[in-house]
Amino acid sequence: MGRRGKGFNRERELARILWKKGFAVLRAPASGAKTKKLVYPDLIALKKGTILVFEVKTREKPGIIYIDRKQFMKFMEFIRRSGGQGYVAVKIMDGRGWRFIPIDKVEETRGGNYRISLENIERGLRISDLVKIADRTRSLTEFL
User: Fold this and answer.
1) pTM of this structure
2) CA–CA separation, 53 and 139 (whole Å)
């Protein structure tokens, strides 16, 4: 299976996980295709009025994630128009599971592209955190 096929499989995997957690999920099948004038994220998840917008990335081993400037700007435009919360969903294929990095943790590079440090990936949110955000629930430790 090629790189694109593996990426599509990760998008579908995440869509199934979010669906099982009670989200309504839409995968944009045109993401990455020849839709230069249109703006599509990889996934959109909705629950109780909360809109979560995802760009999905996969790595075989832990490391920095790089995102092309045009791709990131289209992603940001969709977030702006939808009023949603943007995350880069990262799956590292070494068994660590999914991490969700808020867009404010994505850094611009000197060359004008974008990157996510390994530190920010490690600190990323988990699926349970996204459910709490959508359900607007807080853990007891958040009150301390």
Assistant:
1) 0.85
2) 23
How much of the chain exceeds pLDDT 90, in percent? 70
What is the CB neighbour count within 10 angstroms for residue 143?
A: 6
Kindly list the distances between the CA atom of residue 123 and the CA atoms of 15, 30, 119, 120, in Å, as whole numbers in the listed order: 22, 30, 6, 5
Residues 6+ apart with CB under 8 A from 31: 11, 40, 41, 42
Beta strand 85-92 pairing with 97-102? antiparallel
Measured CA to CA, the distance from residue 42 to residue 62 in angstroms comes to: 21
DSSP state of 125: B
- Per-residue pLDDT averaged across 77-106, rounded? 93
Chain position carrying tokens 């440090």: 117
Least confident range of 38-42, 53-57, 59-63: 38-42
* Tokens linked to 14: 């995440």
Residue 71: which H helix or E strand, with range?
helix 69-82
Cα–Cα distance for residue pair 18/4, rounded to 1 Å: 21
The rounded distance, in Å, linking the Cα atoms of 124 and 18 is 16
Task: Enumerate the active-site residues.
Answer: 31
